[in-house]
Amino acid sequence: MRYSVKLFLVLGVIFMVFAAVYVVWGLNYLPDRVEPVGIVGLLLSGFFFWFLAGYLHVSDRVLDAAPEDDLRGNIEQIQGDYGFFSPYSWWPLWLSLAAALLFLGIAVGWWVFAIGVLLGIPALLGWTFEYFKGQHAN
Length: 138
What we know:
Number of helices: 4
Largest sheet: none
Number of domains: 2
Helix content: 55-70%
Number of strands: 0
């Protein structure tokens, strides 16, 4: 977790610098006022990254060292089930296409949204029940 703490601290600093640049740049184009929404968004993003860094720092002090913090660590050191990957599945491709059509449908027209729904339901069901029957049944 030490590397995550450093990453989030650096990201927080970067977003604070972006906020300062945003203020200076905004004052050059709008000298009478500052646009507040972008500033608030950038400042909150920076504080959010610092909040995550603080949480991970406290967690790192309380918990034992994680295997990913050991430079000579092996994958076997990770205990328990570390996840499941389906390398030959085509269902995520169809589901992502359906999600793209859903969001495009909100912007373009509801008929595209309906096509996304009609494509998304079988894709979601197919991905969910992929390992219940057939060649890869568990």
